[in-house]
Amino acid sequence: MKEINLGGRMIGPNHPPFIIAEMSGNHNQSLERALQIAEIAAMTGVHALKIQTFTADSMTINLDTPDFQINDEKSLWNGNNLYALYQQAHTPWEWHKPIFDRALKLGMIPFSTPFDETAVDFLEDLNVPAYKIASFENNDIPLIKKVASTGKPMIISTGMATISEIEETIQTARDNGCKDIILLKCTSTYPASPENTNILTIPNMRELFQCQVGLSDHTMGIGVSVGSVALGATLIEKHFTISRADKGIDSAFSMEPNEMQSLVIETERVWKALGEVNYGPTNEEKNSLKFRRSIYIVKDMKAGDILTKDNVRVIRPGFGLAPKYYDKLLGKKIGKDIKAGTPADWSLFSD
């Protein structure tokens, strides 16, 4: 599968998983807090910091009719008006450059999710290295065309999308200039349950669409993300906050710093463990072969004595004959005097 260069870092099966901390609206409308999130995210070891570029007006219209209200008791945002919610969640555009500059200074790759064409134009002026398409926008074909026309890598969340919708989105992106696409398996519930995450889709998605696949993970903890790497995910995106107790817009399903640090460590650990199909001792295991079981003489014996279950055993270490010869040795005569603790060898026997 083709490797992708995102901001100078390679993404692909031959590289550690690329970890993105999504700030979203967890800045709570404070630039100082946004910059603090960037500082702490960098300390966890993530590779990229992502924000979102929209205004309430670019997302929806300001009406209180039922269509524009969230009426779902299971939703974190139940009872909210869409326009008011997006006002609360948006990252002011004048904050983007200081956030991006801080991220770059800290060694992270900054980029964003645009939600309309004006956001793309704005982000192009900031020279972002890539674009993320959110699940709820993966069917916005005009937006896909606009982003693809930049020629930059696209990371596309696939929440709710059917196979045919994903195919249409990918084809649109490719037809309009995008050569580097990473799909993200995503479940668009907040938080998502492990039972509803279906990460077995990851290898299937990679085969169907012939591109790299990662995970946009809204579950709690790191287990699902770590498991996805074992299935071939090359990129993980998780929402990030300094503390869930701060009650940011997405804080309820966001990672805290110690969790994000564990995610970075454990996803790289499982990536290293994938290796290749292998049987027999690895190079590192060869020194341990001596501690396998083998056949030993366990009592002092004189020439002419007979081997019995009383004086020959299968024990550790492994310097004697292999255990599979044990039954063949019983009843054989010793050809010379030997001491207890002598490893069995064919030269010891007189017949």
UniProtKB/TrEMBL annotation:
It comes from the Bacteria. Gene3D superfamilies: Aldolase class I, Antifreeze-like/N-acetylneuraminic acid synthase C-terminal domain. SMART domains: SAF. InterPro entries: AFP_Neu5c_C_sf (IPR036732), Aldolase_TIM (IPR013785), PseI-like (IPR051690), PseI/NeuA/B-like_N (IPR013132), Pseudaminic_synth_PseI (IPR020030), SAF (IPR013974), SAF_AFP_Neu5Ac (IPR006190), SAF_PseI/NeuA/NeuB (IPR057736). GO terms for biological process: carbohydrate biosynthetic process. It comes from Schinkia azotoformans LMG 9581. GO terms for molecular function: N-acylneuraminate-9-phosphate synthase activity. Residues 294-351 form the AFP-like domain. This is Pseudaminic acid synthase. Pfam families: NeuB, SAF.
